[in-house]
TrEMBL record:
InterPro entries listed in its UniProt record: ADF-H (IPR002108), ADF-H/Gelsolin-like_dom_sf (IPR029006), Twinfilin (IPR028458)
Signal peptide stretch: none
Similarity comment text for this entry: Belongs to the actin-binding proteins ADF family. Twinfilin subfamily.
Segments of this protein annotated with the region Disordered: 350-382
Organism: Zootermopsis nevadensis (Dampwood termite)
GO molecular function ontology, one term from the record: actin filament binding
Any GO CC annotation of this UniProt entry: cell cortex
Name listed for the protein in its UniProt record: Twinfilin
Length: 382
């Protein structure tokens, strides 16, 4: 009997370790899946592949590639006549078309071990069809692979004619090298961390954290999240049953981003999982967003506390056990905040080129001469 109990204990431990490792591996695999650009299967035709070899000679300055009959095809090309900066505006800007995306590869004068280095411009005008934008964004990875990723030094995603100009390219490079924007509080905290003196921690030190309340997911809620991970849905809504102390499925399905705000209740709290499919700088990206909606004080104190406490354990279960990577976590008061532009800014925050600093104001002029106070002389004689 003792031997059987020991074997059962060892088997149980092995199962737990296996499940934990499986959760970790599925999480990292999931991160790779959701960050990877989806490809369309469109390949370069034979004429374009042959032209790629001609580009190695150094005579071609720029060429344009379009998707024609589900193939990458050469549209036009121009040879170099001056330096890359001298040729840029006169050769690149005539290649763009209104309402029609395309790829433009422009040869720089610098070299690496693979040969000349190139700039890849993804032209995707705002007024072009959404299907065309998606198609070109999803095929860009294939174009880079067939041309040679090692030769592409710079990439530029352009939506307006001004973005394609040489000044627009330089502006893009400055923005790419700028630090991420910080609030005043974050700047003060960073300065404090740079100047602070380390504080010793003894063996008697204690660090306590509130781990939260782990309410279990119902079977339907669990299956819906797994379906979202398998891309059967792009939206799942969860609710807490205060009496049962369980997390139930409230809604699930496929919705567009402009309809997402209509799914946010105005009278009760909810958890939302949404697969935000979008284009950023020419790349097609799918990002799982977790939204915690709490409509102010229209909910009871108990409900607000439970939703706040259950959030962290729920996120841990979704990411480690189901293996669904959550790219962004948001808290909102109402559904009106959720727009495509809002989600784009949250997932891809813009960088500031310059952050103006307010100069210390000068003091008032003509303050007058300083007053001198002399000690009083004693009137009595000793």
């Amino acid at each position: 009997m003792v031997v059987i109990r020991e074997l059962n204990l060892v088997e149980s431990c092995c199962v737990r370790v296996y499940c934990r490792l499986a959760g970790y591996f599925s999480y990292f695999i999931g991160v790779g899946i959701y960050r990877m650009s989806h490809q369309t299967g469109i390949r370069a035709n034979d004429a374009l592949k042959k032209f790629f070899g001609k580009c190695r000679g150094g005579n071609v300055r720029v060429f344009k590639v379009s998707i024609v009959n589900e193939e990458l095809a050469l549209s036009s090309f121009k040879e170099a006549s001056g330096t890359w900066e001298e040729d840029y505006d006169s050769l690149v800007t005539p290649l763009i078309e209104d309402e029609q995306p395309s790829y433009i590869l422009y040869r720089l004068d610098s070299k690496n071990t693979s040969g000349y280095e190139w700039l890849l411009i993804s032209w995707s005008p705002d007024n072009s069809a959404v299907r065309q934008k998606m198609l070109y964004a999803s095929t860009k990875a294939t174009l880079k692979q067939e041309f040679g990723s090692g030769q592409i030094k710079e990439e530029l995603h352009a939506t307006t004619p001004d973005d394609v100009t040489l000044s627009g390219f330089r502006r893009h490079k400055r923005a790419a090298g700028a630090p991420a924007p910080l609030t005043s509080a974050e700047e003060e905290l960073a300065e404090l961390r740079r100047t602070e003196v380390g504080v010793g921690v003894s063996i008697d030190s204690r660090h306590q954290t509130l781990s939260g309340v782990a309410f279990p997911l119902t079977g339907n809620a669990w299956k819906a999240i797994e379906a979202l991970a398998a891309q059967k849905y792009n939206y799942v809504q969860l609710r807490i049953d205060v009496n049962e102390e369980k997390i139930h499925l409230a809604d699930a399905g496929d919705i567009s981003t402009d309809k997402l705000s209509q799914k946010i209740p105005s009278d009760c709290a909810r958890y939302h999982l949404y697969n935000f499919k979008h284009i950023h700088e020419g790349d097609y990206i799918e990002a799982i967003v977790f939204i915690y909606s709490m409509p102010g004080y229209s909910c009871s104190v108990k409900e607000r506390m439970l939703y706040s406490s259950c959030k962290a354990p729920l996120l841990e279960s979704i990411e480690t056990q189901i293996g669904l990577p959550i790219i962004k976590k948001l808290e909102i008061d109402c559904g009106e905040e959720i727009t495509e532009a809002f989600l784009q800014d949250e997932i891809h925050p813009k960088k500031n080129l310059h952050r103006p600093k307010f100069a210390k104001p000068k003091g008032p002029p003509n303050r007058g001469a300083k007053r001198l106070t002399r000690p009083q002389e004693s009137s009595g004689n000793v």
